[in-house]
Amino acid sequence: MSPRLPAQSATPAEVRSYIARTLKFKHSATWEFASQKAELWEIGRGSELCASKRESLEKLFGVNVGLCLFQGIREDEDEDWQESKIGTYSLWFVKASQVVDTALFFVDYVPQANEFLPQITFISHLALGVSSINYVCRRPKLDNYMMLFSGLMRLFISFTNYPKDSGSEIVMTFFALFAFAFSWT
Fold it and tell me: Structure pTM?
């Protein structure tokens, strides 16, 4: 699906068109009213619109219209991110990690699996924790605090259950550092 927000390099005319569409379709304004308010945007690219704070939009368009426009921009920004490749990959990484973690919960009861289970469980908890934190922190709308808390708890669990045997410490430490670097880039 095409992006809802104007491009970062969008011209003022394209930004005005976006403002009018947002007011018309998201807030049921008439075309005349939406066009009149959109004309208040005299100069500025799409990047300035996306970076605008609520107060500056309220000052330019009025309190009611500025607030509605600010909320519309934030909703479109979040929807665009969720439909982007990185948003899709982040969400599927979380889901795949949850499936693996759930499967390992049941494998814990298979006696033959106990030899390799500590290393696999460590990686599973680490992957789920990092992927959850990655998804929450990359989203423009930071509203899923439970997923963030869950990710932090999974990281804590993974490091408290860290396998202390043989030479796996080096491999696990490397994996943990790689996972943290991936999460915060």
Answer: 0.65
